[in-house]
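Intended use. Records like the one below are meant for learning the mapping from a protein sequence to its folded structure. Do not use them to infer anything beyond what is encoded.
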Amino acid sequence: MSRWRAIVFDLDDTLYPERDYVRGGFVAAAEWAASELDEERQAVFDELWASFEAGIRGDTFDRWLERHGHAGEVNRRAMISAYRGHLPQLEPYEDVRPTLEALRGTVQLGLITEGARAVQEAKLAALGLRPAFDKVLILGEDERGEWKPSPRPFEDWLVGTGIAPAEAVYLGDNPAKDFLGARRAGWSSIRIRRPDGLHRDEEPFAPEAAPDFEVADLESLAASLQPPAASNQSPIANRQSPVSGEKQILRPLARPQDDGST
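Structure written out for the chain above:
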């Protein structure tokens, strides 16, 4: 059985802890608030971080500005700009560099990520990982309609590589988009469940969104990776790991129960 010819990685919480970027961004936002709004820097940071730890996403700055009487689009944009414009200080997970080095030359290595383009570029620069990849694809905010779980990023990554979809595998962490997008494009997928990952406790919302395999770290990926054998088995059933000689068990995903309406 031939091996995969391309292993393509997600970025956030796959190659480095995303909370480290968030922490640095909140420091920058707190410094802006101290300078422009005469707020106490540490108090601002503590409140923003507490919101993050409580699971608040997307409107953290709006909530903080409203609570402190600074609501308004100008302040909102400035706070977001401070967050996104900070110079991140990031380190990859310990298993990342050894894995990429071990795989170098055996397969095509790639990366697919999305978000504010300057932010994702800054993360890659801080991590120093861009040279490790044969091809990097970043989808910016102007391409939001094509973000995962759209198959488009996976299709675009393959352009010019001579690699077929069935010969590629995507390794990510987010069950809401990573694995469904890969499956729609005809790729295989592997979930990495980092202990500190923001999506570590989330499960796929449907069987089609489940990964083909799950691993706890990247150490085993340096071994001989092989594509899954053709099977009529559910994509969420227990399977042989793509890593030779190892067994990885996927956590089963319950199908939606019949509500009696049909």
